[in-house]
Amino acid sequence: MTAYIIRRLLIMPIILIGVTILIFAMLQVLGPVERSALYVRDVPKNERQVEAIIRRYGLDRPFYIQYWNWLVGTVDGETGERVGGVLRGDLGFSRSGREPVIDVLIRRLPATLELAIWSMIPVIGFGVWLGVKSALNHNKLFDQVARVFAIIGWSLPTFVFALLLLLVFYAKLNWFQPGQLSTEFAQEVIKPGFTQYTRMMTVDSLLNLRFDIFLDSLRHLIMPVLTLMVIQVALLLKVTRSAMLEEMRQDYVTTARAKGLPEKMVVNRHIRRNALIPVLTVAGLTLAGLMSGVVITETVFDYPGIGSWAAAAALSLDVLSMLGYALFTAVLLVVANLIVDVMYAVLDPRVRLS
Amino acid sequence: MTAATDPVSLGAAEIDGGELREQTRLEKAIGPEWARLLKGIVTNPLSVTGIVLVFLFALIALFAPVLAPPVNDNADPMQIPRDGFRAEPQPPMSEWRRNTPQTVPWWYQNIWPRQEEWVHLFGTTSGQYDIWYGTIWGTRTAFFASFVVTVAATIIGVLIGALAGFYGGWVDEGLMRVVEIFVAFPFITGALILASLLTPLFGRSIWPATIALIIFGWTGYARQLRGDILATKERDYVLAARASGAKDSHLMLQHVIPNAMFPTMVRISLELGAVVLSFAALSFLGIGLPEGYADWGQVVSFARSWILSLDQHWYIIVFPGVALLLYGLGWNLIGDALRDILDPKLRGKKA
Question: With a threshold of 0.90, does the pTM exceed it?
Answer without folding.
Answer: no
